[in-house]
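=== RUN LOG ===
request id: a7f3
mode: sequence -> structure
chains: 1
length: 181
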Amino acid sequence: MEAQHQKEVDNLKEEVTKITSLLEQALRDKSGNATHIAQPEPMLVNPITPQNLGANEKESQKGKMVKEDGLNKLVALEQRLRAFEVIHLYDPIKAAEMCLVPNVVIPKKFRVPEFVKYMGTQCSITHLKAYCNKMVEVVDDEKLLIHFFQDSLSGAALTWYMRLDNTKVKKWKDLVDALMR
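=== RESULT ===
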């Protein structure tokens, strides 16, 4: 499935590149640095005649429509590409890998207490005791203790928590030991 998504992304990128090229060419044409995309056929009659004036206007309108169509396609492709990148970025499989404690089951009636935030400059033992006292309802569930510990942190301490390796923190003691270092 990921190969299919990658192929779709590559195709979208190619289309965006083509349309961007057309758009750049159209913009160059408008500034007079290159030839128009839709040039009128060379005329054998005097271009000032009313018949030729109407033909020039039609060609000009056609050129504008081509430019607008190309721009609309470019915008639509960019939106599709962004939407696809967002889906890819927030892939649920990868999101699960980012969690410190996978497969946490939160009881339906459990409410996360309000915590005094620990920033890393206060006494860590005092913070741990206060945290456990607030989490007394679920103190026997190590996964919940580890998972909600992030809610009691801010600043540098929260950054530290987010950088913990989920392969090394399996138990509450692992988290406490890491905090004490």
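=== NOTES ===
The longest helix spans residues 50-89.
Confidence is low (pLDDT under 50) at residues 34-47.
=== END ===
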